[in-house]
Amino acid sequence: MTPSDDPLVSTEWLAARLGDANIKVIDASFKLPGVTPLPIEDYLRAHIPGSVFFDVDAVSDHENPLPHMFPSAEQFGRDVGALGIGNADTVVIYDAGGWVAGPRAWWMFLSYGHDKVRVLDGGLKKWLAEGRPTESGKASPKPASFTASFDAARVRKLEQMVQNLANKTEQVIDARASERFEGSVPEPRPGLRPGHIPGSRNLPYNQLFDRATGTMKPLSELRAAFSRAGVNLETPIVTSCGSGVSAAVLTLALYRLGVRGSALYDGSWSEWGQEGGPAVATGPG
Fold first, then answer.
1. Known catalytic residue: 241?
2. Which of 71, 154, 248, 282 could bond 104 through an S-S bridge, CB–CB 3.0 to 4.6 Å?
């Protein structure tokens, strides 16, 4: 992994480039339903200077009842353009520092054909800990033109996941906490069955970053974590979670380890776990 192909950038790197017209910063923080204050409220109170708020629930398919599903390429381009981001810009994404949603937005940009995108290592948590500046209030970006082209190979649908139960072509890694994966606790979203996709492996996303600093762990530790979870990095991989957000933390770690061609199950457990859905397994993977 070299600096040129590492999807992460440091707080030092970003601080030195604040104000660069070709670098657009977005806050993609996300919380589960019912958790307050809302991410937008956190953003309005304090955010990295010049950043705009990327709402994963707003930049989604509003005709789909599942939470924050990938929108059409046309909508993604329209929504991103409204944030003042154009195709020539380098996008730097951060979240509150818990690694929940920054990687999801990163994967969305890649999936819609924009490879000039990075994730701020440590997010706002590290930025604040270092005493770096913030600003408050709503941003008013100048709209830009953003043309998106969707790469369906980066995302999996329910039908593909069901088919994979039979052909076992792709490994499935679940980013949820072990208790949720094993089905020993209720799901936070009501109406979902407990458990996991049969045959899937479990690697809770919070095992991939340092909780004290908020930074992602070194490559050697990431590789060891996937190995302990029984994941073969040479075999195709699909990541999953509760609703397709924290799964992207695994996707980002895999990318940093040189894995290309992985995919994200967009509907994740919000879709698979519905009553009357496909087969469910419980207990350790």
1. yes
2. 248
Cα separation, 284 vs 148, whole angstroms: 40
Tokens 């657009």 found at: 24
Say if CB 252 and CB 7 are below 8 A apart: yes
Read out DSSP for the chain? --TTT-SEE-HHHHHTTTT-TTEEEEE-----TT-SS-HHHHHHH-B-TT-EE--TTTSS-TTSSSTT----HHHHHHHHHHTT--TTPEEEEE-SSSSSSHHHHHHHHHHTT---EEEETTHHHHHHHTT---B-S---PPP--------GGGEE-HHHHHHHHHH--SEEEE-S-HHHHHT-S--SSTTBPSSB-TT-EE--GGGGB-TTT-PBPPHHHHHHHHHHTT--TTS-EEEE-SSSSTHHHHHHHHHHTT--S-EEESSHHHHHTBTT-S--B-S--
CB 96 within 8 A of CB 134: no
Task: Select from 43, 19, 13 the least CA-distant residue to 29.
Answer: 43
Catalytic residue, chosen from 69, 124, 175, 241, is 241
Q: Count CB neighbours of 133 within 10 A.
A: 11
Q: Residue 6: how many CA atoms within 13 Å on its side-chain side?
A: 12
pLDDT for 11-69, tens place per residue? 999 999 998 999 999 999 999 888 999 999 999 999 999 999 999 999 999 999 999 99
The C-alpha atoms of residue 156 and residue 171 are separated, in whole angstroms, by 12
pLDDT of residue 97: 82
Task: Give which of 263, 66, 68, 278 is closest to 173, Cα–Cα.
Answer: 263
* pTM assigned to the model: 0.97
